[in-house]
Amino acid sequence: GQVADLCARRSDFRRLIMEPTNETVPALRRRVSDPEVLGALEGRQAALLLHAFSKMRVRDEVVVHGIAQRLLRRDIMQNLNGQAIAMTCWALAKVDMPHPELMEALATRVTDDRMIEQLSEQSVANIVWAFAKLGVHNADLMAAVARRLLHDDVLATFNAQGIANTVWGFATLGVHNEDLMAAMAHRMLHEDFLTTFKAQEIANTVWGFATLGVHNGDLMAAV
């Protein structure tokens, strides 16, 4: 668990153990492939391991399948928090390895009212980005996300990357929600918020609006 945490959070540690002569990653892969080790993992540990492997660009079908099967256990899935769900979705997308059964289970977990209300803005944006990156369209998930973002000024907590990834995700999946896009544009036009956007984030957001056929004159003039 500690190694996975370091792999996920420390780029210098990842570079060190990814050296050709370092045996840490191969050893981790062997350990995670052990049924006894997998069977002892808690949900957060499994999500963290998957996240760590994706950070190291390790694309291992055996590892992904093993961790996915662990996460699919009902008792494990029901105890995953928002951060663990977002980490899992992001990890699968990062290594471009969709796992349909796991993605469906994660979407179902997210659409639970108690869960989606607990999601941070970063978790929401990462989940939308991941499903879009993998080309997985789940109508219930996207509808739940839209409702969440339109409730209680949640969008006010979003940063530039969160806005860009969310707009890009909705557009990539072809999910039209005029109220949400209007709220996104309103958030972008708030005070000096646009000045925090990087060029790529502006480009992705403009592309998203255009792809969805949403025209907002004030926003286009501002960017």
Textual characterization of the structure:
One of its GO terms (biological process) is mitochondrial RNA processing. One of its GO terms (cellular component) is ribonucleoprotein granule. This protein has 223 residues and is mainly α. It folds into two domains: 110 residues, no CATH class; 110 residues. Helices cover 69% and strands 0% of the residues. It has 16 helices and no strands. Helix 1 crosses helix 5 and helix 11 packs parallel to helix 13. It is elongated, with a radius of gyration of 19 Å. The model has no long low-confidence stretch (mean pLDDT 86).
SS-based structural class?
mainly alpha
Helix segment count?
A: 16
Order of helices and strands: HHHHHHHHHHHHHHHH
Rounded mean pLDDT is 86
Shape: elongated
- What amount of the residues lies in strands? under 5%
Helical content, roughly?
55-70%
How many separate domains make up the residues? 2
Give unreliable regions as ranges: none
What is the subunit arrangement here?
single chain
Record field, number of beta strands: 0
CA distance, first residue to last residue: 44 Å
Largest sheet: none
Overall radius of gyration? 19 Å
